[in-house]
């Protein structure tokens, strides 16, 4: 499952103000004395008799084994009202006594029905119980059985949908709602003529009932956990096709979007076929439905019926950037991967969630190499690995395997980004460590052995161990080598010191949290050297102790650790090693694999983020960008330097940083230019997105001219947007920072924002507004945000716009003299403090800091907390800025110096696109 609540712009805006609501629940774990194996569920959800209150009625037959004699049945339920209960022997049981019902107790806090019998259920006998019940369906509940809606031609159209993971199947019918209790499910849904119903299996029969109701009977599901049951009752339309392997696949969305599912159709079948080939294990349902729901957020891998937020299935290549395409394809691959990893084999309990989600996170990139010819390894880095490494450096980091998760109420924390992204990153490392062929054969063995069962982590290790041994590898202990990676939180950093032809290695958790556990990892070390081809796959050495040394092959004059970037660790070189590596990169970038270049940049730029080195030292690691052509390093650069840029840009009109950045970027901009080229790689598009954002933002005249030309053309003919999909944010932003038409463009963009119903387009328009650079325009914008703001935007919109504007140096400069307006107009009072913190964090120019202090000290409120921030920034300027400036000037050729005063605005929104709506909040 992927929960993604940041799918809409409104949700994005509201995120700063959300308060997590925790329900008073204290659900218990079920006893293991009964095991269900077959369910027949019949439900009649009513979305027809009311527009506001929705109920359903239903019955469930559960056949179960008695593992241990008991006179009590405990089944999960949440919010259900029981109406009747019957018990009999199951058809395939041994002869046994059937006790009678003594009492059915509804325990709402524990989320169970406790069914007391007047005698024992006999061990080894099989029983069948029937429960009849009623329940309510919340509107847009997002969990359990719920009602969703969309509007068509002004009419609200209701539909029924489900989200049962982790433990909400119990809202729809009484069940054994834990992943290890697998069973077959026969689903029967009752509906009116006007709707279609879908469930995991294919429709086998429709029966006409009284009063215009119909009953759809679906084929039996595979043997599976009950959180994978799903259904939808809607009036959606669909596209149907067969994959190359002849698998039936359908894509369902609301009628007016059906023309936008072409991309999903083009990849969904290929991806599913890929998994059949890779795993050598047949797909298990006779059809796969991909359904886009209006207000879901995220996606859920129900077997045969994947439910998504509809935005995920609606990629429009003409008008949406490649980053959304990557997102759409990888999300589909993630969910389809679960058919094998999660559905066929399921974690026994949520402490092993990583066996579901880590695998899905790994396999959401893997097939895209073959299916779409994408550089999937680098995409995984850009989208998932880099950010999870950053999170793993926090004191709050969590391990991948979570033995502490025992109760249902603790389960949500097992669905953290560590389980997903780090789990996926570790699998990539393990794959490189034991080699791709053995990795694949191990996983095939694991699937064959544990299909339709539930597993714990050791089961996976055992399969890999067996495969290694069968392949003749006898000296590799899988449990010893792999367990520390999933059991220990945090990330390791290897400090390298070269001693003649030896490398001396020391490992420590990074950063060093004093008093923290004394972690050690078995670190697989890969090395590229002067004498080795780049991208050497082999692990040359495993560092097991705190400190050890080894002699790499052909060390020569330089070397680089983590040669394919798959190792989940950081590297810190000694000074000479660092110099040798940087010199190599500047002379011939191709000596080092592109994924390793990304790692080198990431490992080192973060040292400046963590104040471990000075900015001026970190800048050394940016010089090779002049020759860099791949998306990864550019991406890291733009993300890591976001803060740095905004600090420096605030200080003065000094163009040193702008000149240097333009020097770095001009080369690559000259290669990618503004317009996409037919047939080019997706990552080239992504590189262009980053590079041209920097080029236009830092004064590349060709880039600026082209952006202005296209926006002006668009303004003249609003029905035809000539701006390439990947350049929208950049072009809109540029059109508000440069040129003669910034005023017209500003109001044009506001108008477009009002009219668009495309999420990516809306996102680009919204964020570009903060690029506004003319002082009079910023003042008008501030009037709207601070004074007569309710005319224009709601509270959340106002705060989000203000936060965006504060990333803009001109926005800050114009706001400061108007600080008192925060208390004059209707800016949300609860947000003033946070807004001022953000302003001060980004204020570095002394005169601005002084003006803030002067204005705020005349107010009655206490602002001591701001003075520290402002003073820290001033100290930083005094100590660092001179050196940084000198370095920038020294490293920029003189012909890159801007002769005139720089007038454009660079807005660092360019940087954050991978961290905004493209990210999963609860990955
Ligand atoms: Zn998932």
Automatic annotation (TrEMBL):
Chain ranges of the Peptidase M1 membrane alanine aminopeptidase domain: 264-485
Keywords: Aminopeptidase, Hydrolase, Metal-binding, Metalloprotease, Protease, Signal, Zinc
GO cellular component: cytoplasm; extracellular space; membrane
Aminopeptidase N-like N-terminal domain residues: 36-228
Listed GO biological process terms: peptide catabolic process; proteolysis
Enzyme class: hydrolase
Source species, domain of life: Eukaryota
EC annotation from Swiss-Prot or TrEMBL: 3.4.11.-
Note describing how the cofactor binds: Binds 1 zinc ion per subunit.
The keyword Kinase belongs to this UniProt entry's keyword annotation: no
ERAP1-like C-terminal domain residues: 558-860
Residues annotated to bind Zn(2+): 334, 338, 357
Cofactor: Zn(2+)
PANTHER family, A to Z: AMINOPEPTIDASE, PROTEASE M1 ZINC METALLOPROTEASE
Sequence similarity: Belongs to the peptidase M1 family.
Listed name of the protein: Aminopeptidase
Highest classification ranks of the organism: Eukaryota, Metazoa, Spiralia, Lophotrochozoa, Annelida
